[in-house]
Amino acid sequence: MAAKNRENGSQPTINDVARIAGVSKKTVSRVVNGSPLLNDDTRKRVQEVVKQLGYVPNPQARALALRRNFLIGLVHDNPNAQTVLKVQQGILEAIRDTEFELVVRPVDRGMANMLEDIRQFLERQRLFGVVLMPPISENDSLAELCRQIGCRYVRMGSAELDEPGNMVASNDREAVRDAIKYLIDQGHSRIGFVSGPHGFRSAIERRLGFEDALEAAGIKQPRSMIADGNYTFESGLLAAERLLDLSPRPTAIFASNDEMATGVLQAARRRGMDVPTDLSIVGFDDTPIASHIWPPLTTVRWPIATMARSAALKLTMSVTEGEQEVDEPSMFLSTLIRRSSVAPPPRD
Amino acid sequence: MAAKNRENGSQPTINDVARIAGVSKKTVSRVVNGSPLLNDDTRKRVQEVVKQLGYVPNPQARALALRRNFLIGLVHDNPNAQTVLKVQQGILEAIRDTEFELVVRPVDRGMANMLEDIRQFLERQRLFGVVLMPPISENDSLAELCRQIGCRYVRMGSAELDEPGNMVASNDREAVRDAIKYLIDQGHSRIGFVSGPHGFRSAIERRLGFEDALEAAGIKQPRSMIADGNYTFESGLLAAERLLDLSPRPTAIFASNDEMATGVLQAARRRGMDVPTDLSIVGFDDTPIASHIWPPLTTVRWPIATMARSAALKLTMSVTEGEQEVDEPSMFLSTLIRRSSVAPPPRD
DNA sequence: GCGATATGGGAAACCGGTGTCACAAGCAAG
DNA sequence: CTTGCTTGTGACACCGGTTTCCCATATCGC
To answer: Nearest residue of B to residue A232 by CA position?
Structure first.
């Protein structure tokens, strides 16, 4: 009877494996980590015992010895559930079959000590790295904080926010430009715009795309064709009411996200306007709601899950790919999805 | 110059604090963990150094020494983003300001080796505990697996699935009964029902509620007034088409979730029917979409976030409350939210 | 047959905390 | 002045891995 027998119920440790296989801890460690300097016999024997015992290395002990854990964090303050979940899916896809796990951390943008809160989170947990979701990813002080603490990070955003190694971005500006161009090609010349909230990079980029397209087409519009929104359904509804009160009123409205586009649709419906006959609507994001409302919404598909996957890959690559420096792209293209919410403008 | 000086960049360790404060590791540990057997002077001095150095205990080392980590897992296979995110919020609210973190793990219900996959997840990470979301929480083998492995768990569900200490449930059956009774009180006597997918406890409970209400009101309906759905928008649409093809057709339809209710709405619209004038609709869940569509949907609010919070509390209580055995309730009430999608039936 | 060189494998230190126990100091009781 | 108890603190082993270093053996060239 060995002095140190395995307690029932508790997990087998490396010592158990070593004892039963008749080798040292280190050899077991070598087998588990696939060291090449091993006799095939030894390897087989140890593997046999590992399998039989169902031995799984203790991640805490590993993390301690390696001075590095295998947790990647997702810091977000995005109110859109679809988006957040897609990002989670993307990250999880990237770390599937690796030893990494995903730890989520929503933060409150409004909170005064938000940055301090995140610092504590990062320092306490000593995460391997974090993915920063928009809009909080646009916060430069946060990125600076990560650098200070020495925590790897990747920022997701609507424009180039950081060095390629530390960000993944989508080309919102171009995508919106194309969407507006599509409306113009359909014959629209009075196009309303519902913006995102002030200070958000995505809002700025999307608006720039809007202006690019108008300028390219030589269209001049009064400032009033741009209404402020804040990415919520209600704000879209309110903004649309303002736009539809204009005279002449717009024949098409681009909303900076789908949720606001749904609000625009609601506003149109309340006035008895038919979409797309009386008013064309284009959204942004291609959330499920876009295809579930009536009429299905023409919108810009934002490859958020792919971006998230890539972000996680950038974070973990150094470990999994053995310094291979596979360069994951840092720019992702959004594309226009044409559904039924756009038609040529009504003849006056 | 101490032999073991702190490297720049790396975090201070307990040894650094001990050395600088002129005490032993153990004393620092005592201070950090708030042991009462301490001289006030010593405590002050150590706290001073801790603060000055910004010392934070290494969670991996702690986890190793305590043979217990501070990660709680969320295992889910729920396709509804709103629901999943609400559950995450609930859990996070419960563990706010504790040392626990949330690790998410979506699983694929279709996958043959799903259980094995989850076992690996649980064994590898040695989580403190897991919250099991519906529908996978209804899987008894999974609960059995948790017990075998010795992993604490709490199942969320629509009925009593387990001992009170291991579950939180909502009273779906009663809630649906009340909702249907409300329709009956409005004058409806032909009420269609769109069910959830076969084998889901929530689907069964909701259907039982439906039948309870009809029976209580003495209403007999043909079997065809119940149409199968699977909680997706499309299935709701299809089910509604079948129901609306009936003659006489129902004057009200209850859908077992909001997404399907949205599909029902869509189907009605396609036929040129007005909601609620020609058809009343009631959903279940009270997801944001319910209040964003037109007309706003009368639906059953399911206190999912509260349930999740409670689930997490049950899990962590033993640690944070020092065996206090605060009994967190295990039953939560769903309530009917009355909006504009219900009206008395049209006169024939 | 000899030393030189790979190669497989083990002993012990270490990662950064916590638990156990011993011990010293202070103080009351005998 | 001992004895005994309480209180505050430290030494040391331990959690379960990895890393460093070193030794034993097998292989090789001469």
So the answer is: B292
